[in-house]
Design goal:
Strands 1, 2, 4 and 5 form a 4-stranded antiparallel sheet that branches. The chain is an alpha+beta fold. The protein contains 4 helices and 15 strands. Helices cover 25% and strands 24% of the residues. Helix 3 packs antiparallel against helix 4. The two termini are 31 Å apart. The structure holds 2-amino-4-trifluoromethylsulfanyl-butyric acid and cobalt (II) ion (2 copies).
């Protein structure tokens, strides 16, 4: 979501029984990403991918949260190559070497399941593969920092450090977000930061971690459609997104792939 500075709204604390609803919604979203994998091949259009996601989701008694969300009319976001996020599915057909983030959010029994992964049409080049690997690893390092008593700054720092070690850059304009019965709730989860800064994590907090990482500079611009965010320097961009709940021990990731298809290559 779009970052707004100094968000001091209080962070909802959920009850132990709420974890089950989020676990179910998160698993359905992850299964949707598993399902779409074999369809991501040269020749398919992003609109066709979106239609498949829409129909699959509805057939499971869930609804796509993005349908009608702030005027958005699709069931997924499909962000190809230099598109950072919020790419709108349409007529664009994938070609060999494209990397694409597919981001889905389902609503199941009132709970939101929000997750995204990178996919490759055909074969990606070495730089694109490294970018995807570093982005995935940065997300997992952010997740590894999640436990009661840690801060949001600890998460951002873990992500930023890993990304910049590889001379890539963290997008500043979008962040992770609280989630639950609401799609976008407090807190803003920045993917950069300093250890010990920001709100302290407590059991029962639900939020996403969804770093966007650019091969070049971090700046983005929004296209005239009002949604599509692209890198200003047209460098490649990658993103992964997990949704989790803070537990007494650490955290529960709600959106793990049941089939182990965490990052490319999936074959
Ligand atoms: N799923 C996105 C997120 O991770 C939000 C997409 S909102 C849309 O927060 F309207 F662009 F679809
Ligand atoms: Co999200
Ligand atoms: Co998302």
């Amino acid at each position: 979501m779009e970052q707004s500075p100094g968000d001091s709204r209080r962070i909802p604390i959920h009850r132990p029984e709420d974890f089950l609803g989020m676990h179910r919604a998160g698993r359905l979203a992850a299964e949707c990403l598993d399902m779409i994998g074999p369809h991501v091949r040269p020749g398919i259009t992003t609109g066709e991918i979106d239609r498949i996601i829409h129909d699959w989701t509805m057939a499971r008694g869930a609804t796509p949260a993005t349908l009608g969300y702030r005027g958005y009319t699709k069931s997924s976001c499909t962000s190809i190559n230099h598109v950072v996020c919020h790419g709108i599915p349409g007529e664009r057909a994938l070609i060999d070497g494209d990397i694409i983030n597919i981001d889905v959010t389902v609503i199941l029994d009132g709970w939101h399941g929000d997750t995204s992964r990178m996919y490759v049409a055909g074969q990606a080049n070495t730089k694109a593969r490294l970018l995807m690997d570093v982005t995935y690893e940065s997300m997992m390092r952010g997740i590894a920092a999640v436990r009661p008593g840690a801060t949001l700054g600890d998460i951002g720092h873990a992500i930023q450090t890993h990304v910049e070690k590889h001379r890539f850059s963290v997008v500043r304009d979008f962040c992770g977000h609280g989630i639950g019965r609401t799609f976008h709730a407090p807190p803003n989860v920045l993917h950069f930061g300093k250890p010990g800064e920001g709100p302290v994590l407590k059991p029962g907090m639900f939020f996403t971690i969804e770093p966007m990482v650019n091969a070049g500079r971090p700046e983005v611009k929004i296209l005239d459609d009002g949604w599509t965010a692209v890198t200003r320097d047209r460098s490649l961009s990658a993103q992964f997104e997990h949704m989790l709940g803070v537990t007494e021990q650490g955290c529960e990731i709600f959106t793990l792939s049941p089939t182990g298809h965490h990052k490319p290559p999936y074959a």
